[in-house]
Design goal:
This protein is of the alpha/beta class and 326 residues long. It is 49% helix and 15% strand. The chain is globular, with a radius of gyration of 24 Å.
Length: 326
């Protein structure tokens, strides 16, 4: 029996039937339910999931949007109306011809995108700028489809520069990436039509964000020196991540990513807005604690890099094995 009638007269479907009607595999539906609890399905007396026609429609919309490149983690909290609106916006969007043309703000971001070319990422970096202020000098015929801005510690003071950069790129969609940012600043960015999101783990996720920005989707809701000496700056960590990509062990990549996060939070805490002296002291303590955690992780990173023969910053002495590889 593929469907049954509930006590209140509604027709419901078991999970396998609901998955088939929505165009999903039962395995995918189980994973989505486990990770995102996205349907609110009822349970039968025997514990089986039962889906209403409206829930099947929601699953079908999710499948349609995921196939178009949207991330399920972004879609899961949305209502059926929001999903329908997003699907309609995507349908009205002209089909992309060729690679996606990007304007990129942030030298490290441009470097990561360039390094991902071997992964078949379907984008072209049309223009790149190390700093936000330089975007205003973009040529009028820049032909940028998406402007991607990376600001590790994103503060309210950057808003006018972001708005000016968006205006300089004309009709381009805008994606703003951050590691740490105040909620009020994120809301302000979204009010200006920007898609604001945390720095993604890989460039494949970045492409999904760019596609989402083009489809009109909006996601739901001068630094002081660190307390302790910085032994691995961001370029050094990115070099280690790139050099360790061929290793069977992914610890260098994960540890470098963790150091980027901790260092970013350390700098963010120092600049975070404080309501009074006690608040200022709290943020100072947070920054100091993050600095201490970073220093411990940097010792671990140096040991790991030496063990795997990965490149170290110029200020650190090389091992004999590293010297022989030069």
């Amino acid at each position: 029996m593929e469907s049954k009638q509930s006590d209140d007269g509604r027709v419901t479907y078991r999970s396998g039937v609901a998955a088939r009607l929505a165009g999903l595999s039962p395995e995918t539906l189980r994973v989505w339910e486990r990770r995102y609890d996205l349907s609110g399905a009822e349970r039968s007396a025997r514990g089986q999931r039962l889906y209403s026609a409206e829930q099947v429609r929601r699953l079908s919309l999710l499948k349609q949007l995921v196939d178009q490149g949207h991330a399920i983690g972004v879609l899961a909290p949305m209502s059926v109306d929001q999903l329908q609106e997003l699907a309609g916006a995507a349908a009205r969007q002209p089909k992309a011809q060729g690679p996606l043309r990007l304007g990129v703000v942030g030298a490290n971001l441009a470097r990561r995108i360039a390094g991902s070319g071997r992964d078949g990422l379907d984008v072209i970096v049309q223009h790149s700028w190390p700093h936000l202020e330089q975007v205003a000098l973009a040529p009028q015929d820049a032909r940028v489809e998406v402007l991607v801005i990376e600001q590790s510690e994103l503060h309210e003071s950057a808003l006018p520069l972001i708005v000016a950069a968006a205006q300089a790129c004309g009709e381009a969609a805008v994606v703003v990436l951050y590691r740490f940012c105040a909620s009020a600043t994120i809301r302000a960015l979204r009010a200006h039509g920007c898609l604001a999101a945390r720095v993604p783990a890989d460039t494949g996720e970045l492409l999904q964000l760019c596609r989402s920005a083009l489809a009109g989707e909006r996601l739901p809701t001068a630094p002081q020196p660190p307390t302790l000496e910085l032994r691995f700056d961001e370029p050094a960590l990115l070099t280690i991540m790139a050099s360790g990509s061929g290793l069977a062990c992914e610890c260098p990549k994960h540890l470098a990513d963790l150091l980027l996060m901790v260092g970013s939070f350390e700098r963010y805490s120092v600049q975070c807005a404080s309501r009074n002296e006690d608040d200022a002291q709290l943020h100072s303590d947070l920054g100091r604690a993050a600095g201490q955690a970073r220093a411990i992780l940097e010792v671990a990173m140096e040991r790991l890099a030496r063990a795997e023969g990965l490149p170290l910053p110029a200020s650190m002495p090389k091992t004999e094995a590293q010297k022989k590889t030069r």
